[in-house]
Design goal:
heterodimer; A: 7 strands; B: Methyltransferase, Methionine Synthase (B12-binding Domains), Chain A, domain 1; Rossmann fold; 5-stranded parallel sheet; about 60% helix; globular
Amino acid sequence: MTTLTPRERIRRFFRREPIDVMPVFSGMGMVTIQAIEKMGIHFAKVHSSAEYLARSAITSAELFGLDAVIVPYDMCTVPEALGRGVSLYEDADGILYPTVPSKWGTLDQVDLPADTGYLSKGRMPVVDEAIRIAKAYENGRYAVGGWVLGPFTMAGQLIELDVLLKGLKKDKDRVEDFLSKMTDLVIQIAKHYQALGVDYMNIREMGSGTDLLSPRMWKTLIQPNLKKVFAELSSPKILHICGSTDLIIEMMNECGSDAISVDQKNNVAESRKKLGRDAIILGNFDPYGTLVKLEASQVDGVIKKCIDNGVDAVWPGCDLWPDLKADNMRAYVEAVRKYGKAPTPAVGRMN
Amino acid sequence: MGNEGMREKLLKELSEGVVEYDEERVKKASNEVLDKGLNVYDAVMNGLAAGMEKVGALYDQQEYFVPELLMCADALYAGLDILKPHIRLEDLGDKPKGQVVIGTVQGDVHDIGKNIIKMMFEVAGFTVHDLGRDVPLEKFVEEQLRTDAEIVALSAMMTTTMMGMKKVVEMIKEKNPNVAIMLGGAPVTRDTAGLFGADGYAESAGNAVQEAIKMISRLREMQQK
């Protein structure tokens, strides 16, 4: 039986060409505490060093047999480059992800740059270099995944969320204008990472599920911007939304991505029926619940259920929580390989 | 119009003003409550809070989403700002009241859910010590000791910060085992709350905001006992 390299496996997967077995990967962070500990570093230090970022992602992939490395891990690199600062929590115990300390408080305060100079500010060059290191590792053995927040989620990282949400109703024209600028920003950054050679690009419009917005609002304010983003990007490109997505899954599929990623709140069996066998669906297990809380013996069933429900590749619903149980992580990878030998609705198998 | 008729009319105005996120309408009705010398606590609980309870139902029915909820909360606050300074202690009687320390744990800058829970406590007559968001864990313990609050309410909207809540629970229980601790926030489930040894649980596995609004019903039930 032919065995593909991790990168070949993922490249073929998105081209819908037959593969040997289901790849184990994600479009969100997959760094593990086991890799961080092996490197002898503190988690808070990993975000500011290209070497640490790349090595921690690669070490995680090597320790557990993943097919891809994904960087960066935090959602603050762009806001930081745009002058909104970053809290790295270097003195805090345990794992805390960076946050944005000084979002714009009103739409009047928004001050976006006219050029792309921000791409070389803050930690943006760190991420670029981490992508280069990851790509070069063992002659490109691993696929390198890139991601950018979607326009609405990016807006929520730059401006106070309540201002944004209320503005959707109270100040619609100005919010639409702001979202349009966010769309241009997302396109610039995603294209930048694609030019650096990432093997796939995940647009994470995380904050736009129907936990927050009505399907009608999603159609008028979110979908048009996502369509613009995907029209500008080359393949492979993925749309990820977490939270409630059952009511918008068909609209998600109309945005022009090559694949759709959803979390554990989505009824994938129903989504598969709605989207048909050609759509690549990724998802949909709860990473914290499955890899941190469950017993290792229970993980197999969770992964099998995702595949039985009709995903083409098992993706976690969000970033892996790094402080996961190693046995659970191994059980997850093992289960994907075991149940992923058979073809899935959109992607066949070589033998 | 008799006093009871006036009361009914103004309660309706307050309630509908909140539901229709009409801040001006709520302000006008609130001022009228004061002008007519009606029971202010009654206006808060059976006008403003009753309106917010309807908002919660509209959210459950997926008529309203978070943007609407936030605007309704603004309307409620507009009324509360006018009415709350005029609530008399005797109006509260033996209704639940006390002090709450509330905040969003370090590493989390999302505070929409926390702000709504805070509003619920304020509506019910609690004194709220709001530590804000991205709060260092020790600060919760310090503030509880400083204020001798009966309740500490912690919120974390993201999985990546909820672990911090476990540490706070441990630290507070160590210093003062009698404090009631409530956990809320999107990723916190009942299992997790149990795991952390917390006493209460602002039921919010699905959505922090939705569940925070459900607290209104519980508070109103308590108030009517």
